[in-house]
Amino acid sequence: MDKITVTSPLLPPLDELTPYLEDIWQRKWLTNSGHYHQQLEDELCKYLDVPYISLFSNGTLALITALQSLELTGEVITTPYTFVATAHAIKWNNLTPIFVDIDPTTFNIDPAKIEAAITEKTSAILPVHVYGTPCNDAAIDAIAKKHGLKVIYDAAHAFGVKECGQSVLNYGDLSILSFHATKAYSTIEGGAVVCKTLEQKQRLDQLKNFGFESETQISVCGMNAKLNELQAAFGLVALNKIDESIAKRKSIANYYDKAFSTTAGIKTLDNHSSLELNYSYYPILIDQAEFGLSRDELLEKLQANNILARRYFYPLVTQFELYKDYVSSTPNAKSISEQVLCIPIHNALTEKEQMKVIEVICG
Questions:
Q1: What's the chain's Rg over C-alpha atoms?
Q2: Strand 75-78 vs strand 96-99: parallel, antiparallel, or unpaired?
Q3: pTM over 0.70, yes/no
Q4: Residue range 257-302, pLDDT digits in tens
Q5: Any idea which fold 14-239 has?
């Protein structure tokens, strides 16, 4: 049997993409805010129910630019339980990341730990909607207002996610999306910043285009982080398939939930009924004493059966050499990172493959 991958890109039918490519060839406009770039921004605003969106060539550059746009100084409080790009974006802006612990039930940053870490140097909070599960925005917003801080959400996992019917992408001052091929929605590579005002969008658009205000005027050091027309076209076609894809992912998650509900030593995320998720990932926690195998032993067992899983997130950001000087006490994050395993979930996963995953884990 072929390998069962932990994820698989959402690939729209070629015959639906081809007319877009033919039109791009006809227009001879490949990048620099072309027709499909503008159309995708408009369509995403409608689909995601957000006021403004600025497309980027990837999520990391989107996050770097979002932080730059706010002209932050000093320290930014964030989580060590995230992909390293979150912390990299802080350092790229010559800011100091301050890592605090997570809530062991949601795996998201713990608001109580945020407040305890605030100093006179703190300028912002950078929470992450881990696996698309929304952070406690009400608590984070209250802390930010109390201390006069900016809030920038790393929403790389949260495309289309809603809480009580409202898009979580409207939380905070800015939200950042990733459209990497591994995400539920993809432009192959890509990303975006969601913002609330036209002024914010114009500043982001300026920063991602070398800092140009006009053909003869530059007043800020920008970069080249624009999404090209081919990727924008891919994104438009993929957007037509995203609801169907998320529905398939949800059915797989429900199948797993039922299977693991009676499996000793396996814990899954308990998501509230008020949430509309995209099911980008399916993490399980392995309790070695109850399950009989360690997380890494289960990973090896899956690999031996041609099933790919991922220790996501492991190690913690603070365990990388680059961040060794930023280590703080985060026992919950450490414990979760040593137990977590993300197992296969994507719209191409067959029922037979789902059954095999469960059989190998539970057998």
A1: 21
A2: parallel
A3: yes
A4: 999 999 999 999 988 889 999 999 999 999 999 999 999 999 999 9
A5: Aspartate Aminotransferase; domain 2 (3.40.640)
